[in-house]
Amino acid sequence: MSHLPVDPFLAARIRRGFLATLLLALAGSAALGIAHAHKAHEHGIARLDVAVEAGRVVIGLDTPLDNLVGFERAPRTDAERAAVAAAVARLRDAAALFRIDGAAGCTAGKVELASAPLGLGKAPAPAQGSAHADLEGSFEFGCTAGAQAGFVEVGLFEAFPRLKRLEVQVATPRGQAKATLRRPNARITLPR
Question: Do the beta carbons of residue 168 and residue 179 sit within 8 Å?
Fold first, then answer.
């Protein structure tokens, strides 16, 4: 994992003790697009933003729906509705998707999902005529010592076989980092 500033503005705010502001930004689906330079919609690739502070860890996910269910529209058949229900159930099981270093004493908390075609949350509808749709998720963990976390094991590759690569940004009280995870590597090492 490279230890480069994620974004100079965010890095300066974190150094001044505004990690809570970053956590709130990452938790809001509209802010997920601001937290990282928005790249083109690419099947097989998802983006994760990880924010760590003493009392919590917040993980933001931005992914094409194709990575999760194999299509990017509202489900039309019983089989597609079943695929969506299974994907949403897996996403709501934050503790299985993100296993945070036990030293942090974290437990899964609030999960928010947003995808207009799936009728989840307050996601904006895809552009008129667009064949592409995304899902944005926010996963919050309450921690007794979040800053002690040295890693996060990501279970997204196991849960969603169509997912091939994760572009990761991390912000902690000890620094910022970027990383790219590819199968079978599913561990995010946090700055210490």
Answer: yes
The structure's pTM equals: 0.78
Alpha-carbon Rg for the chain, nearest whole angstrom, is: 16
Written as tens digits, the pLDDT of the chain (192 aa) is 444 444 444 444 443 443 443 443 343 333 333 333 345 567 899 999 999 998 999 999 999 999 999 999 999 999 999 999 999 999 999 999 999 999 999 999 999 999 999 999 886 655 555 557 899 999 999 999 999 999 999 999 999 999 999 999 999 998 999 999 998 999 999 987
What SS3 string covers 108-168?
A: EEEEEEEEHHHCECCCCCCCCCCCCCEEEEEEEEEECCHHHCCEEEECHHHHCCCCCEEEE
- CA 185: distance to chain centroid? 16
Q: Enter the DSSP assignment of 187.
A: E
Q: What is the Cα–Cα distance from 85 to 118, expressed in whole angstroms?
A: 10
Please tell me the chain's helix, strand, coil percentages from 3-state DSSP, rounded to the nearest 5: 30, 35, 35
Report d(CA 115, CA 139) in Å as an integer. 15
